[in-house]
Amino acid sequence: MTSQTIKSKYIGFASLFVAFLGLTACQPDEVTDGNGLSDPNVDASFTIEAVSGEPNRFVLDANRDNVLKSLWNTGDGFYRGSFSEEIFLPDAGTYTITHQAYGRGGIINETSQDVTVATSDPVAGNLIKGGGFKNQADHDEWSILQISDSGTYWTFNEGSANVVGSGYNQQGLFQPIEVEANKEYTVDMKVFGSGATNTWFEVYVSQVQPVQNQDYTAEGRRMGLSTWDGCANGAFEGKLSNVGCVGSGNTVSFEQSGTVYLVIKSGGENLGSTGISVTNIEFRGSAN
Fold first, then answer.
1. Which of 83, 175, 268, 280 has minimal Cβ neighbours within 10 Å of its Cβ?
2. pLDDT tens sequence across 215-231
3. Are residues 115 and 146 in the same domain?
4. What distances in angstroms separate CA 40 from CA 44, 49, 205, 215, one per listed residue?
5. CA gyration radius for the chain?
C-alpha cells in the first residue's frame, strides 16, 4: 500500500470522526430540550356545546393542532374517543369532563371543565337506587347475598362498594328493579382494582330471585371480569362495558313487566391487594 493511499484513508476517517462529533454535539441530552421529537406544550383545550333540543347531549370539540390522540373522562375513567365527541349525560347534576391530549414524544397534557345538566332524561333516567354509594341511605338500597361461608365479603364505603377475598369463596350484592315489558335497558358501572389472580366478577340481570346461602347461577350473565379470559389480571379502572371481557352484552329486555334483580357476585383465589370496587351503577331505558 502506498503512502498516498494511507494518507487518503486517514483523511477520510478523520473527516467522518469530525462529522460525528459535530452531529452529536447538536443533540440535546433530553428529548424535551427542543429537538422537535416531543411537544411539551401540546394543547389539551376543548369546548363543550349543548346539542340543540337535546338537554342531555353535548359535543366535546378538542383542539387538533399537533394532537396525535384524544382520551376523554366523563366520570367513569378515560377512554379513547374522537377529537369531536358526542356524550350523553342522562342524569341531572354537575359533571367534570377531562380531556387528555397526546403529543409527539408521548407527552400528555390534560384540561378539565364542568358541565351542568338541569334535568334527567325521562327515558334513560337511572332506575338503580344508591348506585353511587355516597352515604348510608345509598348503602341501605343494597342487599348482601351470602354464598360461601367465609373468605370473601363486600363492604360499603363513601363513594363505592368493595369486595375482597381469597380461597375461591364468593359473595354477592343485589337490588330489585321494576321493568316494563319489551322495553330495552342497558346496565353498566365503573369498576377498579389493583389486579387479581384466578378471579371472577359477574353481573346478572334476571327475573330469578336470589336465595341466601345459595350460588346465583341464573341465565343472564350480562358482563363481567375474568382473569382466565384476559381482564383484571393487572390494575384496571373504567366502565365495565370497556374493561370487562365476559358476558352476553349489557343490553337486556323482558317479555313481561315486573321485578328483575341486578346481581353482582365476585370471588376467586385472590381478589388483589385492594379487592375490586364498583360505583356509578346504572340501569337505564335505552335512549333514542
1. 83
2. 999 887 999 999 999 99
3. no
4. 11, 28, 47, 53
5. 27
